[in-house]
Amino acid sequence: MEVYKPKDSNEKIVKNIVIAAHKDDGEMIGIKAIDDSFKKDESLVMIILTNGSGCPRVGEFKSVSDEDMVEIRTAEQKRAAEIGRYNCLYLLEHSSKEVQDMHTNIKNELVEILKKYPEIENIYIHNPFDKHNTHVGACELAIAAIKELYADGALKKLSKVLGVEVWRGLDWLPDKYKVTIDTTGAEFISQNIMSVFVSQNSAKRYDEAISNRRLANATFDASHESNICTSLMYAIDLMGVVQDVNKNLSDLLTENLDLFEKELRKNL
Ligand SMILES: [Zn+2]
């Protein structure tokens, strides 16, 4: 694990934690926390689980070795931490397989990191219905760590645990579980910070896709209302799973699919 402190780190109280699978995911799922740390009296900590060695590569990165790719992506992630003035960046550097297999040592590392920040109010993670296996593993590991601490009476100020969309949108979620995150006003910092991931954006234009998805979400969110925001992300509310020791992510899936089916059948 590498602990990286940006040169101009934001030293206000850490109220937001972002736990992401890959070096660039945190800037997608955690943009609200990044924007808030510039506008409010708070800061964020970013935790990245994988080393990013197995990513697709094209153009100038086509013949880069796995080892060099890890270094390139680490440099990009640190640059993002500088631009976003994170309080701290934790690079856990595990393989995707270890995350997908939910190695207990990763959960334990998360527990130890989260313990250092007793003022946490919001945690942004991947959503459990993501299409990418590593993202789902990252979500399950994060939930396991958060549940453990919450059951022990830690994380007393925690009010939101949000599973944010990346691979596969969450606009289908029933309203009961769907959380809209208004990112209007965060467009500039988002574009600025996403632009540092040159190795990733050269394979696919994630930087453009993420802002265009948010614009589409804002436009299509409510059919009978005029736009009140121009950038919107969807997330699933995971607080219920954290608070209830008897409830797991599989139960949450069943509840959402049942509600979704009812919603579709009502209109058919
Ligand atoms: Zn990813």
Question: Can you give a write-up of this model?
Answer:
The protein is an alpha/beta fold and 268 residues long. The chain has a single domain (2-267), classed as 3-Layer(aba) Sandwich (Rossmann fold). It is built from eleven helices and eight strands. It has helices at 25-29, 31-39, 66-83, 96-100, 104-115, 133-151, 187-194, 198-201, 206-220, 239-243, 249-267; strands at residues 2-4, 14-20, 43-50, 88-94, 122-126, 160-164, 178-182, 232-237. It has an eight-stranded mixed β-sheet with strand order 1-4-3-2-5-6-8-7, with helices on both faces. Strand 5, helix 6 and strand 6 form a beta-alpha-beta unit. Helix 5 (104-115) crosses helix 6 and helix 7 runs antiparallel to helix 9 (206-220). The longest helix has 19 residues, at 133-151. The termini are far apart. The structure holds zinc ion. The site of zinc ion has 5 residues, from loops.
How far apart, in Å, are the first and last alpha carbons? 52 Å
Ligands bound here? zinc ion
What's the total number of strands?
A: 8
Strand content: 15-25%
> What is the averaged pLDDT score?
94
Which consecutive residue ranges, at least 5 long each, have pLDDT under 50? none
Helix content, binned percent:
40-55%
Which structural class do you get from the secondary structure elements? alpha/beta
The CATH topology corresponds to: Rossmann fold
Task: Using the 3D structure, state the CATH architecture.
Answer: 3-Layer(aba) Sandwich
SS element count, helices: 11
Instruction: Please give the largest β-sheet.
Output: 8 strands, mixed
Order of SSEs: EEHHEHEHHEHEEHHHEHH
- The CATH superfamily label reads LmbE-like
- Classified by CATH, the class is Alpha Beta
Strand order of the largest sheet: 1-4-3-2-5-6-8-7
